[in-house]
Design a protein that fits this description.
This protein is of the alpha+beta class and 171 residues long. It has 6 helices and 6 strands; from the N terminus they run βαααβαββαβαβ.
């Protein structure tokens, strides 16, 4: 999809307040409502806008523990990867999981109510998998930066010509 500066302004505004009406969004990005709505629909259809969500405060909901877990598999064969990734997808405590290069195969962010809750996840979910060779956990002491908005300044610096972006895929 070709993105112009109006599209970039729309994306920036929606990242900060996705519940606003099209009329409010149009006003903020200096468009009239009909073309603004059409642009939002095009951004959704192209897969650039993938979802609208409510962000919850995990501490206020009783989940103050953030564990960052490095996982090494016994082998990186198809069966081991499939087994591991299937189990991770089923675990609601897993907030993010990345396949990594380097010493570990995966990095996982896990939330828990307390250390006992994390220990249960570790023993019942991760260590019960035969494909897991090694696990190392670090615990968050403090959130220094916590953002959900992607940086879009690289799109704004481009010339006035539309930015060419490929279709963004999702899970």
């Amino acid at each position: 999809m070709d993105l112009d500066q109006a599209d970039v302004r729309i994306l920036a505004e929606l990242q900060t307040a996705a519940r606003m009406t099209i009329a409010e969004l149009a006003k903020r990005v200096a468009l009239t409502p009909t073309p603004c709505a059409r642009r939002v629909q095009q951004l959704e259809d192209a897969g650039i806008i993938t979802a609208y969500v409510a962000l919850l405060d995990q501490v206020r909901l009783g989940l103050p523990v953030d564990a960052f877990v490095e996982v090494r598999l016994t082998r990186e064969g198809k069966a081991e990867v499939a087994e591991f990734e299937s189990r991770i997808h089923e675990s609601p405590e897993v907030m993010q999981c990345w396949a990594m290069s380097g010493a570990y195969d995966y990095l996982i962010r896990v939330v828990a109510a307390d250390l006992d809750g994390y220990n249960r996840f570790l023993r019942n979910e991760l260590l019960s998998l035969g494909c897991v060779d090694h696990v190392q956990t670090g615990f968050s002491l403090q959130r220094v930066v916590d953002r959900t908005a992607l940086p879009l300044s690289h799109l704004r610096r481009r010339s006035r010509a539309p930015a060419k972006l490929g279709r963004v895929g999702g899970p």
